[in-house]
């Protein structure tokens, strides 16, 4: 409805209101019984007429008592309120006014002047009805009823909201009013009988005509565009034939006389006259306006609306609106999809708030209240969670709304919603990524290596867009130079490694696999270092390849790895070169590995032995008077680990042979691992048997030798004693009375002593006669056996014996008995040397002596050796002991030298003495 039509309706209502008010006043002019009957009849007729008129009005009418009670109401008012007359008559009009407007209505009702005001009345269903209330004047005595006219403003408000909601329409209306006010409407008058036409100045301007130029039908028809001509001519013809009382209107494009293409809105009316031929059109009058700007605005608005519609559809945006006065809400299809609302479910705010998450309801309602508050500029923005009605899924919703106000009152709320669940998830992910980025920055600053990005552009240029702070520690270059280009880095790679590194980068880019590489790099400060790198490739939109990864200086690790490789190689060589069988066992005694000596010793191939139990090699035998397996002996009793047990081995052919078995425990990746050392005692048993036989033979020979020696030595020693006694007597006699020369007696005694020495020399030659019976022995084992012989004496003397057997290879070719005799002699000498010492510690150590010899030292904390004693230690009959014979060290030297070794003595740092000897290693002797 236009503004003019609204004004006409208001004026009509006001006229009717005045008429009825006057009728109401005239009805009450005289109530006295003395009034003439004709006058009273006239008043009754007037009252009846007014009531009938009020009843049939389109508006609601009320008769109100001075206190506001409803006396009468017409049908239209009852329909407005939705209540029957019985529920209205007698009620106070304030009971039907909106509570928040009751005070204002009471003031309006009490005012003496007539006026019209807008209020909201409560209907029977609880909704509010916008109305305009006009009151008659208050009677002078204030006792007569007062007439009220109530107009339903629902349509008017709807129209007002429609106008307010469309900014483009308001803009067009403004331009239309300005055009009319400025005289931009052109008029025309065409006599259809004579063909004469008159155009206003504005019409000339609209059509592009000169002020004195006329326009005929042919010229006007030529100005029309062919696309618009057919519709215009049809409307014109229909109006000329009498349709719509000859009125017509049309908007079309015209090519003005100056060539400009314009949109023209034409409206006109034909005048008709009856003739003998019937009713014919004789005249056409009308007006025209150039609506080019309006059409362009409308086209722009239409395009904008279409873009907005497409944007809403593409952005999955739902729209909604809420009529505050009517309490009615509506939403589009996209809104219903977002909230999961069925298409046939009436939309209401209560339904919306029922879907909001309980924790967000208060905030959502607060934002709604703020939007309806004019002081908050009517803007509403909120984010809240909902439980979608269709499937119960929890979603995040962003709502934006704007409230339209009229006279400070909210009349309409429009807004949009969008599902931001993915956005929230993305924001959470971004926050997490930001947190991780901060952590990564902290890690990058603290890790010893380099976190970096490497970019290979489509043109082949290499750069490092990102590198952590410790880039100079790895590459010795600043971040900016690496960001500009990576050629300087590649120039420092080792020439032998550069082709491999470049090829691996190309392969990683081709196959999109992780790049891993180690290479040597010439660091400006550190020199050549090893760099290890690992990174994952990604392809960028411009075709470039980007690697993100980690680099670190592994020079020390490479050194350790090489050392471990060397150590493992030496260990493998040692294990493989050992003459004893070495087996690794799991917790159940199952063989995991074995060396070549074990393969030779037991006759099983390596593949046959691995996986078998150790008892395949070392079967069940008696231990401690009861039967027990080797596994139970060593794995169930931890005290036996490391001890050597003599038992029997079994070869693949079933033959049993004597062995020494020792098992040690080791930890390997959290598992218990056992190492078994097995030594074949077959040859030792043969040697021991032969030695026992030889020893028995030598004992017999020594017995014979002792008897002979006693006989041989008796004579020179007896003669020596006689000569010495004779010399003593001669010395006691006066020189002139001596029967013989004293010197002759002494010379004869010396001769006898030399003879005794010669006898001893012959004995030494007998002991040292020929080569000793040497076999392959382990010097450390001989040390253990010698210690067993002197351990009781050492403990009795409170001597602490310390072993430092550091020689890696202790295999020698020796006579086990003779070397043990040397060791026992040296240990006993050390024991005797510490008899008067407060600190009593004997240290027995072995160490390599060059490439082919092994050295053994026996050190004591005794009183030490004088230079004089050291000079004659190894001479026959030289001794530092009160009861010593002086032949022990002489025999020891003879035995060591017979084994191609050397023996000597010297002081040590503790103040005592150290006796040392060397022996050739078995491998060296075998090569020689």
Description:
The relative contact order is 0.03. The chain is an alpha+beta fold and 928 residues long. The protein starts with a helix and ends with a helix. The protein has 30 helices and 34 strands. 43% of the residues lie in helices and 27% in strands. Residues 1-14, 23-35, 175-182 and 621-631 have low confidence and may be disordered. β8 and β9 (261-275) form a beta hairpin. It has a five-stranded antiparallel beta sheet, sandwiched between helices. It has a five-stranded antiparallel beta sheet with strand order 7-6-10-9-8. Strands 12-11-15-14-13 form a five-stranded antiparallel beta sheet, sandwiched between helices.
Taking the sheet with the most strands, its summary is: 5 strands, antiparallel
Could you give the order of strands across the largest sheet?
A: 2-1-5-4-3
Distance between the termini: 130 Å
**Helix count?**
30
Mean pLDDT: 78
Gyration radius, rounded: 65 Å
The count of β-strands is 34
Strand content: 25-35%
Q: Which bin fits the share of residues in helices?
A: 40-55%
> Spans with pLDDT under 50 lasting ≥5 residues?
1-14, 23-35, 175-182, 621-631
Shape: elongated
């Amino acid at each position: 409805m236009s503004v003019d039509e609204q004004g006409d309706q208001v004026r009509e209502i006001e006229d009717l209101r005045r008429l009825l008010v006057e009728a109401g006043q005239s009805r009450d002019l005289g109530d006295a019984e003395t009034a003439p009957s004709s006058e009273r009849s006239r008043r009754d007729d007037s009252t009846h007429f007014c009531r009938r008129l009020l009843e049939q009005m389109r508006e609601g009418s009320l008769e109100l008592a001075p206190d506001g009670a409803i006396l009468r109401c017409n049908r239209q008012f009852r329909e407005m309120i939705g209540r029957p007359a019985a529920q209205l008559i007698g009620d106070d009009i304030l009971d039907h006014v909106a509570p928040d407007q009751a005070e204002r209505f009471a003031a309006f009702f009490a005012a003496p002047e007539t006026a019209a005001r807008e209020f909201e009345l409560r209907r029977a269903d609880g909704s509010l009805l916008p109305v305009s209330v006009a009151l008659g004047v208050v009677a002078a005595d204030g006792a007569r009823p007062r007439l009220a006219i109530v107009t339903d403003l629902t349509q008017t408000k709807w129209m007002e909201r429609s106008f307010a909601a469309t900014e483009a329409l308001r803009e067009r209306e403004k331009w239309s009013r300005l055009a009319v006010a400025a005289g931009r409407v052109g008029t025309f008058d065409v006599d259809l009988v004579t063909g004469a036409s008159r155009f206003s100045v504005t019409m000339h301007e609209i059509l592009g005509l000169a002020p004195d130029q006329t326009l005929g039908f042919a010229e006007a028809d030529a100005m029309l565009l062919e696309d618009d001509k057919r519709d215009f001519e049809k409307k014109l013809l229909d109006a000329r034939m009498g349709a719509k009382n000859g009125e017509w209107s049309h908007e079309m494009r015209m090519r003005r006389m100056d060539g400009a293409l314009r949109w023209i809105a034409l409206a006109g009316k034909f005048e008709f006259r009856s003739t003998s031929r019937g009713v014919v059109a004789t005249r056409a009058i009308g007006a025209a306006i150039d609506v080019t700007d309006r059409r362009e605005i409308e086209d722009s608005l239409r395009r904008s609306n279409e873009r907005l519609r497409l944007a809403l559809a593409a952005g999955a945006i739902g729209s909604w609106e809420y009529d505050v006065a009517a309490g009615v809400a509506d939403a589009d299809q996209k809104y219903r999809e977002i909230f999961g609302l069925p298409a046939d479910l009436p939309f209401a705010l209560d339904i919306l708030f029922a879907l909001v998450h309980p924790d967000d309801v208060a905030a959502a309602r607060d934002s709604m209240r703020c939007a309806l508050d004019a002081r908050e500029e009517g803007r509403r923005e909120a984010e809240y969670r909902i439980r979608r009605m269709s499937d119960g899924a929890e979603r995040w919703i962003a709502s934006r709304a704007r409230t339209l106000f009229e006279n400070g009152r909210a009349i309409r709320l429009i807004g949009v919603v969008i599902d931001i669940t993915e956005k929230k998830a993305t924001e959470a992910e971004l926050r997490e990524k930001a947190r991780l980025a901060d952590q990564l920055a902290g890690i990058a600053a603290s890790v010893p290596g380099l976190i970096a990005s490497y970019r290979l552009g489509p043109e082949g240029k290499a750069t490092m867009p990102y590198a952590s702070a410790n880039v100079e520690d790895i590459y010795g270059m600043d971040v900016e130079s690496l960001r500009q280009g990576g050629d300087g880095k590649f120039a420092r790679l080792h020439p032998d490694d550069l082709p491999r590194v470049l090829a691996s980068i190309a392969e990683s880019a081709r196959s999109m696999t992780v790049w891993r590489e180690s290479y040597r790099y010439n660091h400006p400060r550190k020199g050549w270092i090893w760099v290890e790198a690992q990174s994952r490739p990604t392809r960028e939109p411009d075709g470039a390849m980007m690697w993100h990864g980690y680099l670190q200086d592994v020079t020390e690790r490479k050194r350790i790895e090489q050392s471990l490789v060397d150590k493992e190689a030496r260990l493998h060589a040692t294990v493989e070169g050992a003459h004893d069988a070495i087996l690794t066992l799991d917790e159940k005694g199952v063989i995991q590995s074995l060396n070549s000596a074990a393969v030779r010793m037991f006759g099983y191939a390596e593949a046959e032995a691995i996986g078998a139990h150790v008892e395949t090699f070392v079967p069940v035998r008696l231990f401690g008077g009861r039967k027990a397996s080797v596994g139970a002996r060593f794995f169930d009793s931890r005290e036996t680990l490391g001890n050597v047990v003599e038992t029997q081995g079994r070869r693949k052919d079933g033959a049993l042979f004597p062995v020494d078995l020792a098992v040690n425990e080791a930890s390997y990746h959290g598992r218990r691992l056992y190492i078994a050392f097995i030594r074949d005692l077959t040859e030792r048993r043969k040697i021991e048997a032969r030695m026992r036989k030889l020893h028995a033979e030598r004992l017999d020979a020594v017995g014979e030798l002792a008897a002979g020696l006693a006989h041989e030595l008796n004579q020179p020693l007896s003669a020596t004693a006689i000569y010495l006694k004779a010399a003593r007597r001669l010395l006691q006699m006066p020189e002139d009375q001596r029967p013989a020369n004293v010197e002759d007696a002494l010379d004869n005694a010396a001769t006898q002593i030399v003879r005794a020495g010669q006898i001893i020399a012959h004995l030494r030659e007998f002991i040292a006669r020929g080569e000793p019976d040497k076999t392959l022995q382990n010097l450390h084992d001989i040390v253990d056996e010698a210690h067993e012989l002197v351990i009781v004496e050492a403990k009795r003397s409170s001597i602490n014996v310390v072993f430092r057997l550091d020689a890696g290879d202790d295999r020698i070719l020796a006579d086990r008995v003779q070397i043990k005799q040397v060791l026992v002699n040296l240990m006993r000498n050390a024991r005797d040397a510490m008899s008067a010492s407060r600190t009593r510690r004997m240290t027995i150590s072995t160490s390599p002596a060059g490439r082919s010899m092994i050295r053994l030292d026996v050190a004591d904390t005794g009183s030490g050796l004088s230079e004089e004693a050291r000079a004659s230690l190894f001479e026959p009959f030289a001794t530092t002991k009160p009861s010593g014979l002086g032949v022990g060290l002489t025999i020891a030297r003879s035995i060591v030298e017979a084994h191609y070794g050397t023996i000597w003595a010297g002081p040590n740092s503790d103040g005592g003495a150290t006796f040392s000897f060397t022996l050739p290693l078995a491998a060296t002797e075998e090569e020689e």
